[in-house]
Amino acid sequence: MEQAAGDSADIAPRHAALRRCIVYLAVYYAVAFMASSVWMVLIVTFAGPADPAERLVFGARFGLGMLLIGGLLVLVIWYVASVMLRFVSWLSAREERSRSATAGLVLVRIAVLLLLAQPVMLAIAGMTIFATICVGGCTGPAEPPPGGSSPREVRTLDLGGGAELALVWIPPGEDVLGSPADQEWQLFDEGPQRTVRFEEGFWIGRYEVTQAQWEAVMGANPSGFAGNPDRPVEQVSWPDCQAFVEKLNALLGTEGFALPDEEEWEYACRAETDTWYYFGEDRDEVSAHAWFIRNSGQQTHPVGGKLANPWGLYDMYGNVAEWCTNALAPPSDATRAGMPAEFDLAQYRITRGGSWFGHDQIDCRSASRSAELLDERSDRVGLRVIFRGKTLPEGEESPRAS
């Protein structure tokens, strides 16, 4: 009896410690659950792509990753819990299932449930947040807006062979194009500034033309940075691009596709902004929007990997420069002074947007202009197409651009 009483007295403090441990576990997991939920919201909202359709894929991958992590946690926690259960079972056998030992066994089982609940709560929270984001951000309005197309409306056209062409509607309007006379790093007569009004809207490629799209239309891929069909096509001359849009029109049974002119390109790029960049004038933000000399690794990257402009267009800065229809206009006296006498303007075409080799202050600005020999094929130059007119060929309406 004395021995049993001594053992009971020895076990009681252990049960009290176990109760405190369970309280600590409950508080810890409640806090961890809330922190994990906030963390997941921040990840999906700020680190995920701006485009809703891509955010859907990102959210699915993120949710799957959380489920895998939760599964690993279950395995680890189950092992720890089994050790605790064996310990209490030993206590129960020693006490011949006394009341205190049975109560200890119940407490440990509660602790096990709390432990196992954490990954389950994480999964539930992740799926709830994921569903909320998808329902609220991945679906367009139930009915199209009155008056036809609106800013950021997206249509997708099938080019065959698994390639699709996404186009964004650019609304009618006006904007001030070019750069002021006192702006640094001007090239190729960016001024004087002028107000340009577009009486009609147009469709423009959501992304630069990819290698997959070029191959679907032309039957071959000329790019130097091959290996990923989602990279922008390059090593294409201005006549090559004219041949591409001609075949694209034939493929889709239309005549509306073309290269943009400079004014269309800059209007779509600025998206009603008047700053150096469409996101403001902070050079430190360029890396979030463009592949250029300081972050490209001297190569192109799959399109859509950076943030879009306010109208949902990707890679308007960097990755590859984009051919426009314009020839190099007669330069100002100041620019002409630095040109050789044999410089033939008719042999050049304007490119816009800068490339993976471009400089953030010089090339990756909305007003920045450059020019290339029209027969030149460079791994720094590609294209983006536009469609002039309201009625596209048969296509699928996509989630709206962000």
Report on this model:
This protein has 402 residues and is of the alpha+beta class. It folds into 2 domains: 2-137, no CATH class; 154-398, Alpha-Beta Complex (paralog of FGE (formylglycine-generating enzyme)). The protein is 42% helix and 14% strand. It has a 6-stranded antiparallel β-sheet. A 4-stranded mixed β-sheet has the order 9-8-7-10. Helix 1 packs parallel to helix 3 (99-137) and helix 2 (52-94) packs antiparallel against helix 3.
Provide the descriptors you would attach to this structure in a database record:
single chain; 402 residues; alpha+beta; paralog of FGE (formylglycine-generating enzyme); 6-stranded antiparallel β-sheet; 4-stranded mixed β-sheet; 8 helices; 42% helix; 14% strand; elongated; disordered N terminus
Strand content: 5-15%
- Named CATH architecture of the largest domain: Alpha-Beta Complex
In percent, how helical is the residue content? 40-55%
Largest sheet: 6 strands, antiparallel
Number of strands: 12
The sequence of SSEs as H and E is HHHEEEEEHHEHHEHEEEEE
According to CATH, what is the topology of the largest domain?
paralog of FGE (formylglycine-generating enzyme)
Short description:
The chain has 402 residues and is an alpha+beta fold.
Question: Layout of helices and strands, plus pairs?
Answer:
Blueprint lengths: L1 H46 L4 H43 L4 H39 L16 E7 L2 E8 L2 E5 L16 E5 L3 E4 L5 H8 L19 H15 L4 E2 L3 H9 L15 H4 L31 E7 L5 H4 L11 E5 L16 E5 L7 E2 L3 E3 L7 E3 L4
Parallel strand pairs: 7-10
Antiparallel strand pairs: 1-2, 1-12, 2-5, 3-4, 5-11, 6-11, 7-8, 8-9
